Amino acid sequence: MHITTRHFRALAAEVDDLHRHNMKTFAEETAETHRSLYRARRSAAGLDDQTIAGYAQSVELAAVAAYTAAAPVLSAGTLPVAQLFMKHHQQHADAFGAVAGSKAVTAPNKTLIAAVTPLLQKITDEMGALEFAFVLEGQAAYTYAAALTLLQDPAYAAATATILPIEAQHQVVLGLALGKDVTAVFPTGAFESASLGDGTDPLKGLDPAVFAA
Amino acid sequence: MTNHDLNNDEIRRQLRAVDRMNTSVVPRWRDALTRLIGDDEFSTNDKATILGVPSPNRRDLFKLGGASILGVALLAACGSDSSDSSSATTPGSAATPTTLPPTTVAGTQPADTTSPPTTAANSGDMDLVLARTAASLEKLAVDTYGAAGGLITTPAVLAAATMFAGHHQMHLDALNAVITGAGGKAITEMNQAVYDALVKPAIDVAKTEADAVMLALALEEAAAQTYVFAGGALSTPGLRSTIMTIGGVEARHAAVLRMAALAQSPLDVFPSQRGFFPGDNPLAGIDGALLTA
Asked: How far apart are CA B110 and CA B178, in angstroms?
């Protein structure tokens, strides 16, 4: 059997189609490879993006629990603000949980809860509750500034960037409600801290190495 | 060989063989690529050498042709590499802005926070553009606080405005350190396009302290939003963190202005009770606001 020019051209077109199809598939597979690389690539601290998201989710849930615990001592004027902040933290937890994949959590960060429980038990009035929340909100903001040094996927970073300023504004609101002067609501000056600590330093974020859920 | 020398069955066999080869080779090539690109021990230049393409900076891209584009696009898409660590703020270190690598650019929109992240990395082309633009906004803020300061008579508000102007000067200095570290020229002039579009019309009609504070608030919120946008658009984790150590402070400025200077309620700090700061580019509609040169 021999081939005519017309058949040859048809076969060439078939090869061309096959090539184009394979290249399209290759492009899609390469794009997925990029995405999986970002998600799985471990940062210098040994944490991948989903692990960081799961950690952030656990911290946000701990913040919700802390506000819930402190709510009984709040006045009628302050309670709506605390409830809004609690709602924000739940939204943040949901957002992180939605992208944490298998690292998503269902409960507040146990280590953080254990660390703050003695502090919460000592709170007897509104000022004490606000002071506690003031420190926690600052630490949350600093935790996210530090997290941004680790997150590899720009989309995770973008999401985190929308949350950091809200935590910072929470701290300002609480500080002014406490009667602090304007300088005091910029605890680390003209730049947010991106340092991490063990929770005892109000000027450092919450180190996932310490508060591993 | 003439057309009639080609056997149809033989050609089909050849095609199937090519297809089998393609099917078997591509996954292996992809695995090799994953190992290569995922290995942080290789610099971008190393990866470029192995892939047989030029390092993905703009000048080289213009020299490219044909097959090289895939390799370069791959490198660009993978974005950060081991060289990123030189600019990253490591946990536990001070939150002072660090030196930018001599790259340029970005360009993704921040993701909806409820959607699974799928954003591809940026090539770094926009980094210098965003840094220059941010610096020009900081200079604009410094100048605006200076110009509007004459309308502020309440001592506490004036003290806050003075402090905020000082913050903006520090931000400008930090950004200029980044820019000059990347080989760029320091920004010394305010963002003229934003001044013309937003600031000048407001200053022209401002007559009271409240007018001045409202202008400052608008600038602070636009600046914070610009940083949030950049926090998702810059090409490396270090840069994204550095820019947000500034963005968070701009958001604090806005909160103080609302509560302490405008006597708004705490709830007003979060318009529509928002739990996420806007991350879309607030300068998108202002021609010339992005400093590309």
From this structure: 23
Report residue A81 as tokens. Answer: 């603000």
User: Which residue shows structure tokens 């954003």?
Assistant: B119
CB contact under 8 A, B238 and A168: no
C-alpha Rg value of chain B to the nearest Å? 25
Q: Do A3 and B4 touch (CB under 8 A)?
A: yes
Q: Does the beta-carbon distance from B248 to A26 stay under 8 Å?
A: no
- The set of residues, in sequence order, having a beta carbon less than 8 Å from that of A22 and lying 6+ positions away, is B22, B26
- CB contacts of A145 in chain B (<8 Å) are 95, 241, 244-245, 248
CA atoms within 13 A on the CB side of A12: 9
Helix residue ranges per DSSP H, B84-236? 127-148, 155-181, 192-194, 200-205, 209-233
In angstroms, how far is the first alpha carbon of chain A from the final one?
Answer: 71
- Residue B85 at interface with chain A, using a CB cutoff of 8 Å: yes
CB distance A208 to A198 below 8 Å: no
DSSP H stretches of helix in chain A? 5-40, 49-70, 79-99, 110-122, 126-147, 154-177
Q: pLDDT in tens for each of the 293 residues of chain B?
A: 444 555 666 666 666 666 665 555 555 545 544 444 444 444 444 444 444 333 433 333 222 222 322 333 333 333 333 333 333 333 333 333 222 222 222 233 333 334 334 344 456 778 999 999 999 999 999 999 999 999 999 999 999 999 999 999 999 999 999 999 989 999 999 999 999 999 999 999 999 999 999 999 999 999 999 999 999 999 999 999 999 999 999 999 999 999 999 999 999 999 999 999 999 999 999 999 999 86
User: Is A2 close to B8, i.e. CB distance below 8 A?
Assistant: yes
Neighbouring C-beta atoms of residue A84, cutoff 10 Å: 20
Nearest chain B Cα to A5, which residue? Answer: B3
Query: Looking at this predicted complex, what is its ipTM?
Result: 0.82
What is d(CA B228, CA B280) in angstroms, rounded to the nearest whole number? 8
